[in-house]
Specification:
mainly alpha; two-stranded antiparallel sheet; elongated
């Protein structure tokens, strides 16, 4: 159960890393294009801020459903792990120095 949860979280973080890397690459390219056009300072910052907003909206439009499915799956697995983990761990005998007890 824990490996399934780790795999789902790895997929979510990997997908998030890909999105962030893509946004960073596009931002660097846009910054160089704006610099070559002679746009500097606060105007460049404002244009890049608008581009960032558009990229975030685009990423959620493209990957939003996949993020939602992965998060629902991860939380479902975590919920099952909590519920069934508590039930299965309830009667595990534990060896102590004095006697065996149930936890």
């Amino acid at each position: 159960m824990q490996s399934i949860l780790d795999t789902l979280w790895g997929l979510i973080l990997g997908l998030l890393g890909i999105v962030v890397a893509g946004v960073a690459i596009i931002e660097v390219m846009a910054r160089s294009v704006l610099s070559s056009l002679g746009i500097q300072g606060q105007v460049q910052t404002a244009l890049l801020f608008l581009l960032l907003g558009g990229l975030i909206l685009g990423a959620f439009r493209i990957f939003g459903k996949l993020f939602a499915v992965l998060l629902v799956a991860a939380f479902s697995v975590y919920f099952m792990h909590v519920v069934f983990g508590v039930l299965s761990d309830a009667l595990i005998p534990v060896q102590t120095s004095s006697a065996t007890t149930d936890v």
